[in-house]
Design brief:
Blueprint: E1 8-9, H1 11-18, H2 22-31, E2 44-45, H3 46-51, H4 54-60, H5 67-78, H6 90-98, H7 116-124, H8 128-135, H9 140-147, H10 151-160, E3 168-173, E4 180-185, H11 188-197, H12 203-207, E5 229-231, H13 232-239, H14 243-252, E6 261-262, E7 267-270, H15 271-280, E8 292-298, E9 304-315, E10 323-330, H16 332-341, E11 348-354, E12 361-374, E13 380-387, E14 391-393, E15 404-408, E16 419-420, E17 426-427, E18 443-447, H17 451-470
Antiparallel strand pairs: 1-2, 3-4, 5-7, 6-7, 8-9, 8-11, 9-10, 10-13, 11-12, 12-13, 12-14, 15-18, 16-17
Helix pairs in contact: 1-2, 2-4, 5-6, 5-7, 9-10, 13-14
């Protein structure tokens, strides 16, 4: 009796039919070398299997790599330092495979073997941090790292305050440290969104909390289950817009969440529903990394070094006799180099500081490191300070450099061709017979675009206005 021909094959049967490893068939299907399953979930028709070239399927598979190796390569792709982001783990590779971003070629589904070329392609994606946040849940220690806070602070957030709920769990065998333990898992996106959806919390203070100190979160009241609500004003703070903009959104969009409490004049809305709406309408974004500042410092003997400060905090004084301060998270190596550059008798010069939301500025000397401490989350925060009168605008171009204006002690002649500024100062050019040598008349130099420059410009405007009224 003739045996009936098989009309549909699962992956094992298809690999057996072609006499190739199962991993090779999985990779051929996942990479598009063979058509997708056409006879049901995970099943291919006989026509598709018989049309596949066994040698081509076999050759496409290069030695699979383990989940641990893949995790290390993805971590390396994230770059250093890993500020407020945990390392990619072998379990994370399992989640990426489950999301269809990697093809499981073999091994434990939770820690799969994967193709090195596909890992390399994933590592090159610019949205890799966002993909990790979207598809890889975090344990409590990882979540604390993602938020940049101490583990004890995260326990308050997820426990006492009730700001986060687990999205799953995993059983971990700690063997001698307690045996099998169920560990909750949290959405990385929800963790990263906390500073946005809880804008009234001083997150800088929480992240900078020193080991052994009382948590800045200790005085906050927990959320009443089912009553985590926000007003229109708080929605506006989340989206960094005015309250009127939120009122307009509510009027214009029929899918804006309905009130869940409050009054007609002061309605209240369910916070999770509002956050979901803001994300869906691109009013807020999940932060994938801390903002950073680029700092170019020139020290003694003209030594120049470029630094990166994460989560920069720049406080500028209003008075000429005040002091400016800049703080941010740094690596140990950068902090040591920065301290060495600023340790000279006259401090150091900031050739260029570029911080999100501000124009590039520079400082003429006397920049010093006034504090460096390690927070409870293990990060190193460095604070620099300088006299306000030395702060000015940075020169155009990536190299930076401070712009200086010279105010002549004597009036300018008609022959002067130097570039003039609103403060009454100028930068001499060599072709100017009057100021080319910067010696006659004597110039009072100050940083351009700083407090001193602005005060001189305001004084000149007042004098001009008074002269016009008198005239």
């Amino acid at each position: 009796m003739r045996r009936a021909m098989r009309e549909a094959y699962d992956e094992n049967q298809a690999a057996g039919r072609l006499r190739v490893p199962v991993a090779a068939w999985r990779w051929a299907a996942g990479s598009g070398l063979v058509p997708p399953a056409d006879a049901g979930p995970g099943r291919w028709s006989r026509a598709v299997v018989e049309a596949a070239d066994p040698e081509q399927v076999r050759a496409a598979l290069r030695g699979p790599i383990g989940a641990g190796v893949a995790a290390d390569r993805l971590t390396e792709a994230l770059g250093a330092p890993l500020r407020c982001r945990p390392r990619v783990t072998a379990a994370a590779v399992g989640h990426l495979a489950g999301a269809g971003l990697l093809v499981r070629l073999g091994g434990d589904p939770a820690f799969p073997d994967v193709h090195p070329d596909q890992v390399a392609a994933l590592a090159r994606r610019r949205d890799l941090p966002a993909l990790l946040d979207r598809h890889v849940p975090l344990g409590p220690d990882q979540a604390a790292r993602r938020l940049g806070v101490r583990r004890t602070d995260f326990d308050q957030i997820a426990g006492r305050l009730g700001w986060l709920s687990p999205v799953g769990s995993v059983t971990v065998d700690y063997k001698r440290q307690g045996g099998l333990t169920t560990v909750p898992l949290y959405s990385a996106e929800d963790v990263a969104l906390l500073p946005i959806v809880r804008p009234w919390v001083d997150w800088r203070a929480v992240r900078a909390a020193r080991p052994g100190t009382r948590s800045p979160l200790a005085g906050l009241n927990p959320v009443v289950p089912g009553r985590d609500r926000v007003t229109l004003a708080e929605v506006a703070r989340m989206a960094r817009v005015g309250r009127a903009a939120v009122v307009a959104w509510r009027r214009r969009h029929t899918d804006f969440p309905a009130p869940s409490g409050g009054t007609d004049v002061h309605p209240q809305f369910d916070r999770p529903a509002v956050v979901a709406w803001l994300l869906a309408h691109d009013k807020i974004e999940v932060p994938v990394a801390m903002p950073s500042a680029s700092l170019v410092v020139v020290g003694a003997e003209c030594r120049t070094f470029r630094f990166r400060l994460d989560d920069p905090h720049l406080v500028l004084a209003d008075e000429v006799e005040g002091e400016d301060q800049l703080s941010g998270w740094s690596t140990d190596a950068d902090a040591d180099e920065l301290a060495a550059l600023t340790a000279g008798a006259f401090g150091a010069t900031v050739a260029r500081l570029t911080e999100p939301g501000t124009g590039p500025l520079a400082v003429l000397g006397q920049v010093r490191v006034i504090e460096r401490f390690r927070s409870g989350s293990g990060g190193l925060r460095v604070t620099l300070a300088w006299p306000t009168r030395l702060r000015g605008a940075a020169a155009n171009g990536p190299a930076g450099g401070v712009v200086r204006h010279g105010v002549p002690y004597a009036g300018l002649g008609d022959e002067c061709v130097c570039h003039r500024y609103a403060c009454g100062g100028l930068i001499p050019v060599t072709c100017c017979a009057e100021h080319g040598d910067a010696a006659s008349p004597v110039l009072e130099w100050h940083p351009g675009g700083g407090v001193r420059c602005g005060a001189l410009a305001d004084g000149r405007r007042r004098v001009t206005a008074e002269g016009e009224r008198v005239g």
